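COMPLEX REQUEST
Ligand: NDP
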Amino acid sequence: MPTTAREIHLASRPQGWPTPDDFRTVEVQLPDPAAGQVLVRNTFMSVDPYMRGRMNDVKSYVPPFALDAPLDGGAVGEVVATGSDDVAVGDTVLHQAGRRTHALLPASAVRRLDVSRAPATAYLGALGMPGLTAYVGLTRIAELREGDTVFVSGAAGAVGSAVGQIARQLGAAKVIGSAGTAEKCAWLTDELGFDVALNYKDSPIGRQLRGHGPVDVYFDNVGGDHLEAAIFAMADFGRIAACGAIADYNADAPVPGPRNMMMFVSKRLTLRGFIVTDHADAAGEFYRRAGAWVADGSLKYQETVVDGLDHAVDAFLGLHRGDNTGKMLVRL
Ligand code: NDP
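STATUS: Structure written out below.
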């Protein structure tokens, strides 16, 4: 019997900040799964900054979203019908066909989750792609060493909150984070064990960072003023992991680069960009270690949940405004 599903399509390519008119909700009928397929009722979908880049028609590390087609993205859900011997009705699975209430997928495109270890939503956050991004950025890109001072921007977000805590687990001596509200900063220091949390909206981040360095590792989620401030604060031979530049994502013209690039020479700095999907081979090691950290409370996480597919666009815009603490999710 066909299943009625609702999906969010990209109606037009946003210029600058997206608006609700750039999206359309479409109802479709999904057939029962054929042999080798599964039908998943999505329960939560991930809301991620990288989705903004995919709305532009530009060549990048992933193809742009097509117009008038469902948007995708990480999601978890429950299998409600199956044509596969490997995946059973009732299994909780992770997959990439979010932004819709139901997804019909090849069984090979879903990963069964162990929900006795952690709730399904954790696999979209601390135990999922954002957590792996933090781990890879610290270990492989910034080559974190014991005793390092680490600064992370976007520190109260999904990636940033994992960065600070994982850095501590891996031997960082001092962890500094920046975030956009006093409540987020209090969460970082009072609950996650950051040594210093700076509210970048209080006064220029460069001025606030002075006196807390020198910084050995900067994990950059923001770009813009944060990157320039970090370069000023870096120790000689410091390493910068370029993970994202959310300050630029909704700009309608190119954002100027840091004005202090000569410091790369004088301080002998390294900046290296990375994309987490190039590091799938680190996933096994990460899940093993992060699972233990979550279990013993040394990797804590928070979720901000928006209810309903109809509010998915609000959640996406809210993510860019800083409405989330920890991982931004939509409950479906
Ligand atoms: P977050 O959970 O961190 O959410 C985004 C946060 O960015 C907001 O909550 C907001 O918090 C902050 N923000 C928004 N605008 C600005 C601004 N102008 N200046 C400073 N902070 C701002 O998202 P994720 O953890 O999912 O992603 C964090 C970063 O990591 C992004 O840049 C993303 O693109 C990148 N990323 C990169 C990957 C890779 O493979 N390289 C993989 C996954 C993510 P606040 O209130 O503090 O402003």
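REMARKS: The CA atoms of residues 171 and 271 lie 21 Å apart. The first helix runs from residue 50 to 54.
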